[in-house]
Amino acid sequence: MMKNRTKNLTAALLLSMATFATAPVALAQSTQKPYTYVEQMPVFKGGEGEMLKFLGQNIQYPKDAQQAGVEGLVVLSFVVGADGSVSNVAVVKSLIESTNAEAVRVVKMTDGKWTPGRQNGKAVPVRYTLPVRFAVRDEQKTTTPDQKPEYKGGQEALFKAIGQNMVLPEEAKKEHLNARVVVKFTVEPNGSVSNIKLADTKLKKTIGPDDKLDYMDASSFNLQNKTILARLAEVAAAAVQKTSGQWQPATKNGQPVAAEVYLPVQFLGSEVERGSALPETKAAPVQDVKANLVGMNDLVPLFKLDKKPTFKEGEMAAKKFYAKNLRYPDTEAEGDVTASFLVFEDGTIGKASIGTSMGTALKEEVLRVVELSKGKWQPGYKDGKAVKTVNMLVVRFVNESSVKKEPKKERLPADVVVTKFK
Fold first, then answer.
1. Residues 273 and 343 in one domain
2. What's the alpha-carbon Rg for the chain, to the nearest Å?
């Protein structure tokens, strides 16, 4: 069994990275607070090779992820205690629920298998960040289709079909709620749709002019808004069901096969913010879909790309760039800032817009750093050809010095975490 698990999975670990912090990280901290960087960082007993071996032997690639062809990184943050224990395991960048849960499960199994970090010769707790890559070996991709499902008529026809069947409930308009729903379903070999489920649901509420809450789960809202979210979810699922029979199925070795599809759907409220009206599918009420598609027919959404836009020097170079340039503004505000910007075929980028923000200072900082990244990008690719797409950057600002801490809520996965310590 152990051999088979190793055979079915390549779990590639990148170099460990410390959480970004504005305070000098090597200064003494309280005994209750873990360090973010120390003179001698924690190491897995036996070294990195043993850690790779341990993960390869224990991680089981979730079946739904394999069938959907889901591959990529799950980034975990956890504390390696002074005794080598592992605690406070959290996902800071996710793929899907099943891969996140599997990565967390196996990292928790490493409890006691670490040599603790040291500062001034003393063992201390250290916050450790570990990226885990889920990738099926080429020879094991028997369940991954050669050609993924395609909607008949193409992407624009899909936008129109979904949009025509979705109406934002009046209650949501009155509450100034926008919603983002990810619908998971199976396209059968005959092109029909089955097994419709909700993989994720988020809300955003407008408080006043230019002041918005981040997308978050319904637990942060009252019962009325939970009911609205349930209705939105039903509408999205029904809209997907009405596309049944209109799909070209996935193929494997020239034969039609069943395959899962993850479709992000965004409901836009009465006040459409054009900077944030660039979701991956733009599946909004039909009047908004038509407006958003003007001049954008050649856009390829991120989820359709074979290779997403990235820094020319690679992912690690991007992380170093953000670590070097992102600063925590002089504010007590915290939360997520989501920037959207066009990446053109030649790698140039358009002006970023902020779809979600918890404060003006945080918003301006993210816009500043995105502007600094101009000239560093290479485009996304589809079928070997550079294409234009909308890229998104989610920056999470965490203020550990805040006296009043809000309860943690489920949020969108963050690309970068910037932490302000006491």
1. no
2. 22
